[in-house]
Amino acid sequence: NKILSQTKNTLEWVHIGGAGIEEYLFPEFVNSSVVLTNGKIIQGPEVSDHAIALLLSITRNLNYIAKGKTSIMPRPIELRGKNALILGMGGIGSLIAEKLSSFGVNIIAVDQKLIPMYSFINEFYYQKDIEKVMPKADVVISAVPSTDSSNKIFSNSLFEKMKNGVIFINISRGKIVDTDALLRYLKKDKFLGVGLDVTDPEPLDMSHDLLKDVRVIITPHIAGLSEYNRNRALEVLHTNLKNYILNYPLINIVNKKLGH
User: Which of 89, 237, 241, 243 could form a disulfide with 248 if both were Cys (CB 3.0 to 4.6 A apart)?
Assistant: First the structure.
């Protein structure tokens, strides 16, 4: 904010290396003419891998095995023929859908905008209709960016619409989920399993009940890391620096008012 105030008459472009930009969207910046670009799309490979890893850990009972609870673990389940609802079909969500489709999963895509007609998408719905389609899902995965419209979108009303025995995965942002509501429905036995790479707050207090439940797998916000993620981030920055100098269109421009 201070930098923007000092350079508001000369600053034209800001680039953020990661995909998450909600902490930078203060009103003066959002309402300015400064162009914002970020690292969206390029996290797709590793974050989608992580989402699949969390899901498979639950379907194959690795959470029970790791915690020495094999005596109470349910029978493992197959992904083939299951319905997976993916909220957010950007660079991450689309790759999750592609990978899950290869497992024989029926993909239900949900987004605010119209998406490409991918061959691996079985059904598409707009985000405003998510409550109508939620009861169909055996697996629900959040890959939506953190915006005003997605803040705590997973709360009592959506959890109530989910079928009993659903698997819930969040690899987007912690604030997408109402943590108290998630815990409430976990205690009601709504979920077969929950996989989280992000939480709200982050990290959770070590005494938090989510950390004590064998059905829950939590990783410490590491889905975006891989041996290639920094190289891809630098490639985007390098491309945009060249485009800016040559007066070509910048890539990965963020709509600051929408937040993605």
Answer: 243
Question: By CB neighbour count within 10 A (0-12 exposed, 13-18 middle, 19+ buried), where does 70 fall?
Answer: exposed
The CA radius of gyration of the chain, in Å to the nearest whole number, is 19
Q: How confident is the model at residue 185 (pLDDT cuts 50, 70, 90)?
A: very high
Burial of 219 (0-12, 13-18, 19+ CB in 10 A): middle
Q: Bin 177: left if φ > 0, else alpha if -120 < ψ < 50, else beta.
A: beta
- In what helix (H) or strand (E) does residue 192 lie, and over which residues does it extend? strand 191-196
Q: Which residue type does 122 have?
A: N
For residue 6, pLDDT beyond 90:
no
pTM above 0.90, yes or no: yes
Pairing state of beta strands 166-170 and 191-196?
parallel
pLDDT tens-digit map of 117-142:
999 999 999 999 999 999 999 999 99
Query: Cα–Cα distance between 181 and 159 in angstroms, integer?
Result: 8
On the question of pLDDT at 1 being above 70, the answer is no
Going by the DSSP 8-state scheme, the letter that residue 11 receives in this structure is: -
For the chain, the straight-line distance linking the first and the last C-alpha, in angstroms and rounded, comes to: 19
Mind listing the pLDDT tens digit for each residue in 71-91?
Answer: 999 999 999 999 999 999 999
Among candidates 200, 203, 195, which has minimal Cα distance to 171?
Answer: 195
Q: Taking a C-beta distance cutoff of 8 angstroms, is the pair 77, 69 a contact? A: no
Indicate which residues carry an active-site annotation: 221
Structure tokens at 203: 């990290």
Q: Which two tokens stand for residue 252?
A: 């990965």
For the chain, the 3-state helix, strand and coil shares in percent, each to the nearest 5, are 35, 15, 45
